[in-house]
Amino acid sequence: MHPYRTHNCGALTEKLVGETVRLSGWIHRKRDHGNLLFVDLRDQYGITQCVVETDAPTFQAIDTARPESVITVTGPVVARSEETINPSLPTGHVEVRIAEIAIQGPADELPIQVFGDQEFPEDLRLRYRFLDLRREKMQRNIILRSKVITSIRQRMVDQGFTELQTPILTASSPEGARDYLVPSRLHPGQFYALPQAPQQFKQLYMVSGFDRYFQIAPCFRDEDARADRSPGEFYHLDMEMSFVEQEDVFQAIEPVIAGVFEEFTGKDVARPFPRIPFAEAILKYGTDKPDLRNPIEIADVTEAFKGSGFGIFAKAIEKGAVVRAIPAPGAASRARSFFDKMNDWARAEGWPGLGYIQFPEDGPAKGPIAKNLDDDRVAMIQKIAGLNPGDGVFFACDQPNKAAELAGLARAKVGTDLELIGGGEFKFCWIVDYPMYEFDETAGKIEFSHNPFSMPQGGLEALNEKDPVEVLAYQYDIVCNGVELSSGAIRNHRADIMVKAFDIAGYSSADVEEKFGGMLNAFRYGAPPHGGIAPGIDRIVMLIAGEPNLREIVAFPMTQNAQDLMMAAPAVVPEQALKDVHIKIVMPPKKVEPGQE
User: Fold this and answer.
1) Is 0.85 surpassed by the pTM of this model?
2) What are the distances in angstroms from CA 537 to CA 228, 236, 300?
């Protein structure tokens, strides 16, 4: 007999009654029934109930073993009596009578419990992550993650993609976040960067003649954490294709993403995903990450307020402001407090407020704004915003970008408060036609708005002749339920276009040669048109698992401020290690609290 197990803890059935088996696992919980002690033994595969009599030689050893101790038990499989069958367990018709026991790994008193659904503070969960990962939900999520990755990998291979790898130690690349830098021992004063994305290398694969590349790639970005963004590192499905247009990329990736969601959620996913231009998304939804489960669409009602009797909006419009209307279907019958609370919410979020109008089932429009508008203007608002009797509407008035932001936030809140957002469904869309550039008000200059390696729509001619902020790019995002899953683009594969594109963003040809010389040089020797995308594995699993935070589907995440509490990282390193890489630490000056000068 094997020294540790003949079966796992999820394998015993009535067919094995009478056989002697050996199981190993963790003590999940114990129950003392007087003359009998029951032990639920757990491993990754399930739970088996084991039992020992109080007068048995093995009783003392198991009675003193704490929960989560690792043990090996040997004994016969017996059928449970009818009244003790547990139909919720695959092994619930049988139990093991403990004839022998070996304590493989005794456990100390637990800082967090594994059995049960008790919630624990995040710092405890992360400090003792090895215990947290033993809990049923975490086991389920991590195994789901593995299965999702396996499914994605197979779907990509089935479409003719080749799995290839890219370097981890590389050069810095402008992906929009801070790099993690690695000092070089052999080259004093010089640094590698951990890749924010394998962008340049996957394009170089295309230049090298590999037609369809993919990998489940780690990426490293020194940026602040959010619920849908881990600090430090994350994984995505990185893919690239040669001789393709934008639609070819869509047709390749949609079956993979939709297929995985359908496989693991049992929900149908509508295809093709809607294609929504960036400008339209900002107007209708106030964001380029719209949750299409929310039926509310924002409308531009600036014209209805221009020169109107509602002076606050009319004067703002003269200074370049716009007015966005956020419908609230069926809200007119709600108490005024509903509308006032929305206004209070906006102010609490740092906005001037939200005006509103109510359209009762019968009678004239109501509210402070309606009193200052003539009937024709009220009717214009009702028509443009698609409002019906019984609806309400809120207004965001500000400069275009600010008005869109507030309207988008208000749309999400109204949809939530009115319970308009359906649960249990997944609505995808493509956001397309991103601006190639944007004007940074703080820096006072033109900058890339998305991916700097994208092909501008119209090519070199557009870059030479158009106002930069009017140039669109072949850039696209996949969004699901308000969560951005990926960004992608048809790439700029021409050296002359690349140099011009970076010139507009303030990079000289010398800068481009220095920073991207490897790729630029490759383009001079025959580069195919190519494009790709990189859906986030972590976010895909988070949505499929129905979890609100990435930490629930990542095995060993860091805290919000990028610390690994379990491994105590980051940490101070020995002086010799710093000397080896020619680094001297210069600590920032300590902050002096007011009154302590």
Assistant:
1) yes
2) 11, 5, 36
